[in-house]
Amino acid sequence: MVINVKHETGGFEFIGSRGAGEIIRKKMKKELDKEDGIVTLDFVGVEQVTQSFIDEFFGIFIRAFGIEYIRGRVRLVNETQGIKDTINFVIKYSKERIA
Predict the structure, then answer these.
(1) What DSSP state is assigned to residue 13?
(2) Residue 47 and residue 82: Cα distance in Å, rounded?
(3) Distances (CA, A) of 74 to 6, 78
(4) How far apart are CA 87 and CA 81, in angstroms?
(5) HSE value, Cβ hemisphere, 13 Å, CA-based, for 98
(6) How many domains does the chain have?
(7) Is the pTM of this model over 0.90?
(8) Collapsing DSSP states into helix, strand and coil, what is residue 66?
(9) Which domain, by its residues, includes 51?
(10) pLDDT for residue 99 is more than 70
């Protein structure tokens, strides 16, 4: 399943709300709950995101289910370096909270 992040969150280049993250989380969860579910998050047209937005799906999944829930099953495409940095920060933070 490919999720076009910009399209799903209102067409903005900057995404900063937890509400937008909740939309992505719910779509991801349906696919990841399948035994062979794989999600591709396509960030085409998105310039930057906030930690709150990313935490609403990556952070919540990691803290609730562990990193293995998303490892190897979530792919990112068309993400900027700033988006990568934000995602990595949230993942690191979330893994520390379950350790």
Answers:
(1) S
(2) 8
(3) 17, 14
(4) 10
(5) 15
(6) 1
(7) yes
(8) coil
(9) 2-98
(10) no
Q: Which residue has the tokens 């893994």?
A: 95
Whether 38 contacts 1, CB under 8 Å: yes
What distance in Å separates the CA atoms of residue 59 and residue 89, rounded to the nearest whole number?
10
In tens, the pLDDT along 12-55 reads: 999 999 999 999 999 999 999 999 999 999 999 999 999 999 99
Helix (H) or strand (E) holding 82: helix 81-98
Three-state secondary structure call for residue 45: coil
Total number of residues shown for the chain: 99
**23 Cβ contact partners less than 8 Å away, ≥ 6 residues apart:** 8, 9
Q: Which phi and psi (to 5°) does residue 72 adopt?
A: 75, -5
| DSSP label at residue 55 | I
> Which residue's structure tokens are 């085409």?
44
For residue 38, the model assigns a pLDDT of 97
